[in-house]
TrEMBL record, chains A, B:
Record EC number: 1.1.1.3
Protein's name in the database: Homoserine dehydrogenase
Pathways per UniProt: Amino-acid biosynthesis; L-methionine biosynthesis via de novo pathway; L-homoserine from L-aspartate: step 3/3; Amino-acid biosynthesis; L-threonine biosynthesis; L-threonine from L-aspartate: step 3/5
Keyword Cell division included in the entry's annotation: no
Species of provenance: Hyphomicrobium album
Length: 444, 444
């Protein structure tokens, strides 16, 4: 048996506590499979006295995570503090500069400073592993970095935020409003008191930025991601989607186009016969299209202390087994610059929901605005919400707005936005039209 | 740039040709990401002159794969010959004995001789990688060997044979018979002229045996797998399953129970709201339940030259990058013996289809046989095939058999088989009852 791999762990929240539990529970298993014991020799967290369910009395305490990061006793530093800057960044840099391997679950840090940190890791010949930074227990970093490294990836997309997926699932299953579903998610601890980071799509954008770099071998472009959240999704959109054979998911999608990288986060419709449409609740999913491997879909727990700790442990195990991979798939000197494709150039089909004043010529005017921009319509239905069944409520009064839903054939973002703006300016609709992109999936 | 990794490739069928194409297309990408060029220096196949779509004129030809395997010019040997014994085994052993890394796509070889070969690789300090041996392009070997190595796996299961899944998909989508769907699969090249290996479940059993060892850290137990094929599945079973909210898939399932390992291959019902139920056509899927990571599902191409070549290439890339992992997750000295749990001890719910003579007391006698063995019934329906709509055919004649379908609550294999045997012996049914296991999935 070789000498132990010694760890310093900074940050003992749910993931840190999960990691302590895992390394305690599976001590013998890890030692056997790594070919050497893995020992925690130093820890650091905000409050020293807190009970974390695992005996840490034999482990040296550090008030300062930076001091732990460069302590002579550790081989590898595990950063579970969080935040793109501040002490997390200082500690990771200190560890790398001291020639320590680094494992981090910090998506914001990697999305913002990943290239610089990867370069430093390469110079020092140490690992910088971050499986837990994206999609919790799903091994998507390893899949892109290793399994698909000899492929050209053309698209990566997925359900990357469990809070949003939980809310959309609740709205779909229980026919509840967004506000109501959000409140339940908050009560259950799935959503924060200030839910903006999750429901606004920013968490997904951080994760997508990391996946994009790994997929296409480019520098990181977090500030280049177009982001929309799920706040605008209503029960009627979800009902209409179901009736037409779609589910609505918050997707992060990055596609390599001739004009550059199109990276976007937004609610999207996916066909109900697809496997990804059956990913419900707090579960995450990541799909990858590549030239030789065709399409992969990975589904699993996107968060939670134990599942995320499992991802951290796999990173630690790789280090213990002696594997050091280029952090961003391609050595940083070979990373291509990030070139953004304008969202206006996006091509796809669209769902458009209009609240149309029931006046003579209204539909003709709408059809003309679409036709002028060569947007052709695949289907059009006038419908009422499922809750308003005939006989249960008064029939629609003449002159009041009617709900009209269109599915377009493939068109461009520019064309559909311009058509919808013109329809709104014509005064034919009573509220701002709802526009949802339909994501094209490969037939399996 | 370091010195090249030199490869010898034996076997140039569809996977071998795919690998030549991949290494040609992505030569620069592979070199950059591996940190060194990957060069094919020797090849061997049955017919030397055949056009494989890639120029092989600069590569040394070997008539004898064993000579190639131990040739001084190669660092790693890629075995794509196939077959559990014979020249494939001889060549792999020769390569390992000569201290060469080995990559193989040969499921039969690994299922039968994996422990012996892994031991040899460990002694020589070289890699034995076989990502392509199970589920084509899906990175399931890496997921078990690396991503979940610090977990205790409790179950691994999946759709591991594209031919069977294609046939079941065709039967489901197009309401066609098994014989008809098989013929189409043969016409399209998805099924062999002698389809026994695929439709009888033996291909799935080979793959499951490998997954089982990796999942539970045991020796290989290919001959311990209980195997049933899909030949007995009829259109009425598929229709009845659909009506009750299930899809029928050929699953390979390995579960760790208190009595040992339960490894079985058989047609199974899975709920339509599960992601795995939406895996159609020739696509494969593998699901893994583990203590810290909960549940993962991986979906992708289970066969095909290009996707399988992608898996082989990832194995090669790992070697070029210097990663050498224990072939069977746990070093062979730590492998546990394979202890089989009897299938009779299997616990689960069952679908039972009976063709019952419409005579007084028949149902009472059937119910008694079930009740005597404490098999309780969740639902029972008498139904006619969908094709026999009322008014289109004569109504059932008094005394002729009626189709009765039951779903049981959780019971044991022993109880249900005993009940069904007794019902048959009672002479209450006109043909052998159909029994299909319902696989319990975690709610996502």
């Amino acid at each position: 048996m070789q000498k132990p791999l010694t760890l310093g762990i900074a940050g003992l929240g749910t993931v840190g506590a999960g990691l302590l539990e895992l390394l305690h529970t599976h001590k013998a298993r890890v030692a056997e499979r790594a070919g050497r014991p893995v020992e925690i020799v130093g820890i650091s967290a905000r409050s020293k006295g807190k009970d974390r369910g695992v005996d840490t009395s034999g482990i040296k305490w550090f008030d300062d995570p930076v001091a732990l990061a460069k302590d002579a006793s550790i081989d590898a530093f595990v950063e579970l503090i969080g935040g793109s800057d501040g002490v997390a960044k200082a500690a990771v840099e200190a560890a790398l500069n001291a020639g320590k391997h680094v494992v981090t679950a910090n998506k914001a840090l990697v999305a913002k400073h990943g290239v610089k940190l990867a370069k430093l890791a390469e110079e020092k010949g140490v690992a910088l592993n971050f499986e837990a930074a994206v999609a919790g227990g799903i091994p998507v970093i390893k899949t892109l970095r290793e399994s698909l490294a000899a492929n050209e990836v053309t698209r990566v997309y997925g359900i990357l935020n469990g809070t949003c997926n939980y809310i959309l699932s609740t709205m779909t299953d229980q026919h509840r409003s967004f506000a109501d579903a959000l409140r339940e998610a908050q009560d259950l601890g799935y959503a924060e008191a200030d839910p903006t980071y999750d429901i606004g799509g920013f968490d997904t954008a951080h994760k997508l930025a990391i996946l994009t770099s790994l997929a296409f071998g480019t520098e990181l472009g977090f500030d280049q991601v177009d982001v929309e959240g799920i706040q605008s999704i209503s029960e009627v959109d979800i009902e209409a989607a179901q009736d037409m054979g779609f589910a609505i998911k918050l997707l992060g999608v990055a596609t390599r186009t001739e004009g550059g990288i199109e990276a976007r986060v937004h609610p999207a419709m996916v066909p109900e016969e697809s496997a990804i449409s059956e990913v419900w609740g707090a579960t995450n999913a990541v799909a990858i299209d590549a030239d030789f491997c065709a399409s992969l879909l990975l589904v699993g727990p996107g968060a939670g202390g134990r599942a995320t700790a499992s991802a951290v442990a796999s990173d630690v195990l790789d280090i213990a087994r002696g594997a050091v991979m280029p952090p961003l798939v391609t050595p940083t000197r070979g990373l291509k610059p990030y070139t953004k494709s304008r969202l206006g150039r996006h091509q796809g089909a669209y769902y458009v929901r209009l609240s149309v004043y029931d006046r003579p010529g209204a539909m003709a005017a709408i059809a003309k605005r679409m036709g002028d921009r060569e947007v052709s319509i695949e289907s059009i239905v006038q419908r009422r919400p499922r809750s308003a069944l005939p006989g249960m409520v008064a029939r629609q009064k003449p002159g009041s707005p009617a709900m009209v839903i269109m599915i377009t054939h493939e068109t461009t973002e520019e064309a559909i936005r311009s058509a919808v703006d013109a329809i709104e300016q014509d005064g034919k609709v009573s509220e701002r039209p709802q526009v949802i992109r339909i994501e094209k999936l490969e037939s399996a």
